């Protein structure tokens, strides 16, 4: 075993992270000669955490990367689909349907669910924060509160959910974006003063990195803001990470710094805020002059979605456990209000409560272990999420 406790990619692929009862199940099925029986398994969710009334489906690309080469076929709603859980009907709507011999994918259930449930929670929290911020810039700064092994997963999910930038190098690689960051308090503490730290940053760091100085380390924010303006020629912004014990009325503090900056002619210097922000605290100051929000734990540690995998058809015949509905089902969604629908037929005429006709939205994404369909970049998925989230926020 390695010194670090995270599973490596090969350990995940080899099944070391699976719940052990799946491995036992496979051994039993193989011993009785029914290992190759084909099944349809569906991935569904019931209610959402925190009373959320919609969520963003995220993580599909990694699931496809995991299952590539295995003899399975998958139909799924596209990654980035915004969906509402059903409230008036107990038939759950599949977000993903998987076909294959149970023993060829059953051992991956733990990994597949983890790759969908947590990223979908993070993407949803990011999308909600983006709404709370009134579409202003939201930067994902929460990796430090979670295990480093999943930094890339967190950043990709936050980005797809609508965050405008991510802070980790691996997150930047995965999302195809330049990672963003300002200045840690450590720089000022090590350099001994705001002024020396600001000047050193400006001299050492390449010019394409935006100059955003942190102004709550030693002194009053408005004094430090002006110091930053005077020390750094192309100052883009100042960041207030003011601790709760000094914050008082954060709105007033933000407005006071803005006033001071404007008064001395620094109207273009932006104000960025961070420090324990969540959806509610972002919403409370979204209408101020703040241009960007650095949001950490509330996005990275978002509640995970409670999706589950269930066999719904075996050897072409419907079956299911008690409490679930048998049969391979097709997934529909209202294009207007995003309510979900389900049918045993792929070309049903389903009408939404709002009066619109629903669309069948699942698409084939893997055939016999080969990915099919468009290969969408994280930024394309993010754009589609933002469009849907705008639509749902205006209902
Ligand atoms: Zn509708």
Q: Note the total helix count.
A: 15
Return the CATH architecture of the largest domain.
Alpha-Beta Barrel
Largest sheet: 7 strands, antiparallel
Taken from the alpha-carbon principal axes, the silhouette is elongated
* Number of domains as seen in the coordinates: 2
Numbering strands along the chain, what is their spatial order in the largest sheet? 13-12-1-5-3-17-18
CATH topology of the largest domain: nicotinate phosphoribosyltransferase
CATH superfamily of the largest domain: nicotinate phosphoribosyltransferase
Portion of residues in beta strands equals 15-25%
The rounded distance between the terminal residues' Cα atoms is 52 Å
Task: Please identify the structural class as seen in this structure.
Answer: alpha/beta
Number of strands: 18
Poorly predicted tracts of residues: none
Give the CATH level 1 class of the largest domain. Alpha Beta
**Cofactors and ligands:** zinc ion
Rg from Cα: 24 Å
Mean pLDDT: 95
> Residue share in helices?
25-40%
How would you describe this structure in keywords?
395 residues, alpha/beta, nicotinate phosphoribosyltransferase, 19% strand
Description:
The chain is of the alpha/beta class and 395 residues long. It folds into 2 domains: 36-120 and 304-393, nicotinate phosphoribosyltransferase (Alpha-Beta Barrel), CATH 3.20.140; 181-300, Aldolase class I (TIM Barrel). The protein is 36% helix and 19% strand. Strands 13-12-1-5-3-17-18 form a 7-stranded antiparallel sheet. The protein has a 6-stranded parallel sheet with strand order 7-6-11-10-9-8. Strands 15-14-16 form a 3-stranded antiparallel sheet, with no helix packed on it. Helix 13 links the parallel strand 10 and strand 11.
């Amino acid at each position: 075993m390695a010194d670090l406790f995270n599973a490596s990619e090969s350990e995940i692929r080899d099944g070391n992270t699976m719940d052990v009862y799946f491995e036992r199940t496979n051994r039993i099925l193989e011993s009785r000669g029914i290992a190759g029986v084909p099944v349809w398994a569906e991935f569904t969710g019931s209610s959402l955490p925190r009373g959320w009334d919609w969520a963003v489906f995220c993580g599909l690309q990694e699931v496809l990367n995991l299952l590539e080469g295995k003899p399975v076929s998958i139909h799924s709603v596209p990654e980035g689909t915004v969906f509402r859980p059903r409230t008036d009907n107990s038939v759950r709507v599949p977000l993903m349907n998987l076909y294959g011999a149970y023993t060829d994918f059953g051992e991956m259930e733990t990994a597949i669910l983890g790759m969908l449930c947590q990223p979908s929670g993070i993407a949803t929290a990011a999308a909600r924060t983006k709404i709370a911020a009134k579409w202003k810039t939201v930067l994902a700064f929460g990796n430090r509160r979670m295990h480093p092994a999943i930094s890339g997963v967190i950043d990709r999910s936050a980005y797809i959910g609508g965050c405008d930038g991510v802070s980790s190098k691996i997150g930047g690689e995965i999302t195809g974006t330049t990672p963003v960051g300002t200045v840690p308090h450590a720089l000022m503490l090590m350099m001994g003063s705001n002024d020396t730290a600001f000047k050193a940053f400006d001299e050492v760091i390449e010019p394409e990195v935006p100059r955003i100085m942190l102004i709550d380390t030693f002194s009053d924010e408005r004094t430090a803001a002006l110091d930053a303006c005077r020390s750094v020629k192309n100052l883009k912004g100042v960041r207030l990470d003011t601790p709760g014990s000094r914050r008082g009325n954060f709105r007033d503090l933000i407005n006071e710094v803005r006033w001071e900056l404007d008064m001395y002619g620094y109207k273009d210097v932006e104000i960025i805020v961070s420090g324990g922000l969540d959806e509610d605290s972002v919403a409370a100051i979204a209408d101020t002059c703040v241009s960007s929000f650095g949001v950490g734990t509330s996005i990275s540690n978002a509640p995970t979605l409670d999706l589950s995998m269930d066999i719904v058809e075996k050897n072409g015949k419907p079956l299911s456990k008690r409490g679930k509905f048998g049969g391979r089902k097709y997934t529909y969604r209202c294009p207007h209000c995003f309510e979900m629908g389900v049918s045993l037929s792929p070309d049903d005429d389903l009408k939404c409560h709002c009066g619109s006709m629903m669309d069948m939205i699942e698409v084939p994404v893997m055939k016999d272990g080969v990915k099919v369909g468009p290969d969408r970049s994280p930024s394309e998925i993010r754009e589609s999420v933002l469009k849907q989230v705008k639509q749902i926020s205006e209902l």
